[in-house]
Amino acid sequence: MIELEHVTKRYGAACAVADVSLTIGAGEFCAVMGGSGAGKSTMLKMINQLIAHSEGTIRVDGQDVRAMAPAALRRRMGYVIQSIGLFPHWTVARNIGTVPELLGWAASQARDRAAALLEQLKLPPGEFLDKYPHQLSIGQQQRVGIARALAADQDILLMDEPFGALDPITRQALQAEIAEIQRASRKTIVFVTHDMDEALRLASRIAVMDRSRLVQLGTPIELLTAPKTDFVRNLVGRDDLGIKLLGIALVASRMRPGEAAPGEPIAATASLRQALSRMVAEGRDRLPVAGADGAPAGTLHLGDLLRR
Amino acid sequence: MVRNRVLLVLLLAGLAAVPSLGFLTLAPNRLVSGVPIGLAAALRQGGEALLIPAALLAAGPFLPQRRATHAAMALAAAGFLLLLVRLAGSEAALLAASAPPIASISLGGGFWLLLFVASLALSDAMRRLALPVWATALLGAAICGALALLLLSGALDALAILREYTARRSAFGAALARHVLMVALALLPTVLVGLPLGIWAQRRRGLAGWLFPLLNIVQTIPSIALFGLLLAPLSTLARLFPALAAWGIGGVGLLPAVIALFLYTLLPVVRDTAEGLAGVSPAALEAGRGLGMTPGQLLWRVELPLALPVILSGLRIATLQAIGLAAVAALIGAGGLGAIMFQGLFADALDLVLLGVVPIVLLALAADLLFELGIAYAGRLPR
Amino acid sequence: MNRRWKDPLLWTSVGLVALVLLLPMSRPLFAALFPTLPRPLFELDSFADLLAGHVLVVAASSAAAVLLGAGAGIFVTRAEGAEFRGLVASIVTVGQAFPPVAVLAVAVPAIGFGFQPAFFALLLYGLLPILDNTIAGLGSVPSAAVEAARGMGMGEGAILRKVELPLAAPVIIAGIRTSVIINVGTAAIASTVGARTLGLPIIIGLNGANPAYILQGAIPVALLAIVLDLAFGRLLSRLERWRR
To answer: Which fold would CATH assign to domain A250-306?
Structure first.
């Protein structure tokens, strides 16, 4: 659990973060959203004290961050940055094993853990363990960066615009993977982004920041249906509000179970937005739904999408 | 609270120098080592003015760091520098008045350290002030002008280094001229040969493949060894063709020095020309070719101007190297300021050594400054 | 086995050792080359001792220069030392204007003759390329890697040891290489102030117009410099293996 109470950061006369209070519970995926200069990265970096806060209190699992030695505090959290920052002179295996090495793990243990993480991130370990960063594409490098942050299996993961430098296809793939990782491990993730769609897709709660202040804290649906200020309303987008709402809900929540329909099925875990897109593209008003095992689970009707 | 740690460190270094090292040294003659004369004694005898800028500088590290503070520190450091030199001259004159004429009064370690520290304090203040280039150059010129005035007015004539100068005025002039000539004679062919070589080396990898290793080997050979290695073939040539000896071409003297200097300065010029050309943006080249420029026009109007800052930087390294190596050439009879330096070295006369070293350092600093201005200007040319 | 014999480092080092061992026996050769010389072979000191003396003064001064130069370079690139960076840059500029010979010449009246002024002059002049390259090398370390390391919980000392220095090493060692090669040359000139190096035959030869002496000094010195340069080149390519 991460608690911020009336936290402020001043640089001379200017204020980067002004009187922010929020609590991130264990297992939450909290996205911190805002435009450039809103203070989101600063806020993230105050959690692991890469930047020291000027006023207020920050607590991690009940302990004041100032009471801990900075290096020890940071070893308790995974950290992923936009510029990736792999160590060019170390192999992928040694990069991933950075924190385990700091914590005193045995070399073979660290290597096994690295192999397991590479598997999880869809990089064949046999091929990648002994490669050097410059031999990898950017997308592969950031996967290694994420593996490195997960290596010591800490409960908290801090991510600072991790997919900002990637192309849209890789970004989508990694978003799906990080969502899957969070679902499986129930880590607490603090995720800074300026991409609203990314935040809506991944987060269980979103903190919106505007010019150093916390403007709204809520679930994606709350932000979409009850924005508190014009800034938030503009941020979530007025024109395709409905489409965005569909993007958050899953097919499984609106399907009619047991019913059958002809044609190519859609996964129950897909979003309603993907379903709508298929219906429009194929010119149909109903789609068969397949469960996790591939077996037919029901049917989704176009009309049911409008239900509130 | 200390706000300027650099200035504080410099002040402490200067303060440490005052009691431990002599400001001047008084010796009964130029061959024997002398007695140190402390700064305190000199201050008492009419040098109190020095204490004003000194006090200002002492307060400096603790004052709030604003532009006014930096400007004050710059002025105080410059003032301290000039007053220090004047004090050295006047104190030497005082000592000379009451000492036998062959007594030698040299600048002591304390003087040099204080001079060095004051110059560093000045450059620190100037850096914090962040003035435009022309203003810095102007201030620098003003200080040099003031020092030159002091020198020419005879205020420093009692110092041993100037006595050495007066004793061999014409030899000094000849040595200075010879030194500059050596550097110029070596740099001219370096530019004429090195620039085209650099252009070719950038275009043809085959050439670069053996040219750079060869030039590297030449650079690796110690200068005196290279002089020595050139001596044997050149003296054999002179033996076989006595006519050449009549022209002054032989194993020793100016020619082997110039040849060696030329060989040494080739590498920086060739390498930086090639690198400068390699750094020209391919987009500019493509645009030029697309507009219909011939390769010659492309080279002259696009590539060379864009590569100029890097080429000048290589030429700067070459010039500084040449000025330094020309000093060693004195050992093979090429003359120059190195000859005066070695003369002093063998006679164990520090002031004679300094008479050779100080002009070399000033030459190098002046060349460095000119090139810096040139490189900055070349970088600002419309692109 | 075949490839090893083509290794330039191997045959130049063998050449140097062979030369130093064989020179004392080469009187007939030099007598034939320079028939007019009464003394064609340098015999005032053993070549092996001169080589040892040369290597000793270069090694000692370079070791000290690395400690001081790299230490100052590290200090100036840390947050606490950043204020001093301009000062260090100014000192470097002034230092470069002093030819190594000049440092030698000025050191003698202060320190005396023999090993000491040579050591001091080599140390002072050798400091600058190392300092410059340490600053440049540490500056070239990708800041993303340092930021990631800090964020993961590496202490500042560990970051320096495990990330910054290994990545800056090629540039730093290039600086040490430049410094050592220049020092080999200056150590030769230091024979003028009584240092026992391979420059002694050259200086005596120049004084007495004896080209045989000059060659007997110049060739080993040149070879020594080339051997050291090749050795550093080998070290550098080994350090940069991960780049390929």
So the answer is: CBS domain Like (3.90.1280)
